[in-house]
């Protein structure tokens, strides 16, 4: 019996992905900082879907957190066949407004922990007949976004890393999928402190975390390389590719300045 390990599973998209996988019969390992929320999610999942659900509360911005998570799985004898790197957050506003520590911590959670977990769990994933890595990027990955500069760069990194790793693992038992959600109705905007203009723009195109999770898990099991969720977000990414960078960046900046 194998397990799906989901980071950032205390709420939002990660919680919805955990529920989606549990509904398909997977045991789930839920990771985030908020122990109480994790416990509630795990209790609901195990009673609703009759699968095993365990939790580990840790802060993925701490450098040895991925090692601790890996050793926890080994000690508990949890064979992982699905690794979902979903934990992440943004900080909106001028680059200089944030301290180096704030920007570095975001980079650690969004990029470094994600790469570290892929590296640590790959040998275990390779041992399974079929296994999956599901990395959550963002529609922010397809262009630079002034006033969300570090966040959009971290998500561009996730997109490129995931596609590269997928190609390296071609022919192995491990399939890598990267998902780029657009605006989704979660606490993301609260933590990112997105201004009124950004919130109003997001509200017009918001998807539910449940819909994003369903599309993500379907894409993962279908072995897709990359998915941008929703038609409007797909059009946005296409226009970002088509139009001059300067025009795209000025337009994006107006949402977050
Ligand atoms: N919502 C959107 O509009 C949107 C759009 C594109 C991409 N995304 C991406 O989707 C993913 C999920 O975000 P969401 O929208 O579901 O936001 P959310 O509701 O704020 O959830 C973020 C999750 O990440 C966890 N997390 C944050 N910092 C962490 C840390 N230092 N260590 C461990 N876990 C941490 C949070 O749990 P704790 O706070 O309990 O630690 C929470 O479970 C993120 O990667 C985000 O960048 C979101």
Q: What does the model show?
A:
The chain has helices at residues 12-23, 35-49, 65-75, 100-127, 149-168, 188-192, 196-205, 209-221, 231-242, 245-256, and strands spanning 3-7, 27-32, 53-57, 80-85, 131-136, 174-180, 226-228. The chain is of the alpha/beta class. It has a single domain (3-256), classed as NAD(P)-binding Rossmann-like Domain (Rossmann fold), CATH 3.40.50.720. Strands 3-2-1-4-5-6-7 form a seven-stranded parallel sheet, sandwiched between helices. Helix 1 packs across helix 8, helix 3 (65-75) packs parallel to helix 4 and helix 4 (100-127) packs parallel to helix 5 (149-168). The longest helix is centred in the middle third of the chain and has 28 residues, at 100-127. The radius of gyration is 18 Å and the shape is globular. The N and C termini lie far apart (49 Å). Bound molecules: NADP nicotinamide-adenine-dinucleotide phosphate.
Q: Quickly name the level 1 CATH class.
A: Alpha Beta
Number of strands: 7
CATH 4th-level superfamily: NAD(P)-binding Rossmann-like Domain
Number of helices: 10
The termini sit apart by 49 Å
Q: What's the architecture, going by CATH?
A: 3-Layer(aba) Sandwich
Q: Into which percent range does the helicity of residues fall?
A: 40-55%
Query: What order do the helices and strands follow?
Result: EHEHEHEHEHEHHHEHH
Overall body shape: globular
Q: What integer is the average pLDDT?
A: 96
For this structure, the quaternary state is single chain
Each distinct ligand? NADP nicotinamide-adenine-dinucleotide phosphate
